[in-house]
UniProtKB/TrEMBL annotation:
KW Metal-binding (keyword) present: yes
Domain Cupin type-2, first and last residues per copy: 39-104
TM region(s), chain numbering: none
Phylogenetic classification of the source organism: Archaea, Methanobacteriati, Methanobacteriota, Stenosarchaea group, Halobacteria
Record protein name field: Cupin domain-containing protein
Gene3D superfamilies in the cross-refs: Jelly Rolls (2.60.120.10)
Keyword terms, alphabetized: Metal-binding
UniProt GO molecular function: metal ion binding
Length: 128
């Protein structure tokens, strides 16, 4: 059996990200689930780029503020207390709008945890 308590305040933010990212599963024995906490100020984006995963499912639970997610189907507004789910091969890009009143805090979960299968998506040329 294996159990662990991870205090998110003890996890250092990842470097080179467009907003604050704390990888809550880093250092744990979890190998198939990624759990990340994001905090994006107004105007900041959450992922590095518009992208999709070939296998990973993702769920974004908004802890506070409002998250906006761009997709080829349109834009989704996700309020605090709501979950936005993404199936594999579904392009998306999340951000906190520049005109937002406050930061947005999001708990993002993905499985499998492999970050290597992330592909850029260009909406201007149909995705390639």
């Amino acid at each position: 059996m294996g159990y662990e308590v991870v205090d998110g305040r003890d996890v250092s933010p990842a470097e080179g990200r467009p907003c604050e990212l704390r990888r809550l599963t880093a250092g744990t024995d979890l190998s198939t689930l990624a759990v990340n906490r994001y905090r994006a100020d107004p105007g900041e984006k959450i992922p590095l780029k518009y992208h999709y995963h070939d296998e990973q499912e993702e769920a974004f639970y908004v802890l506070s503020g409002t998250l906006v997610v761009e997709t080829p189907d349109g834009e989704y507004t996700v309020e605090s207390g709501s979950l936005f789910a993404v199936t594999p091969e579904s392009p998306h890009r999340a951000h906190n709008p520049a005109d937002a009143d406050a930061a947005v805090e999001v708990l993002a979960m993905g499985a499998p945890a492999d970050e290597g299968n992330v592909y850029p998506y260009d909406p201007d040329d149909g995705g390639s």
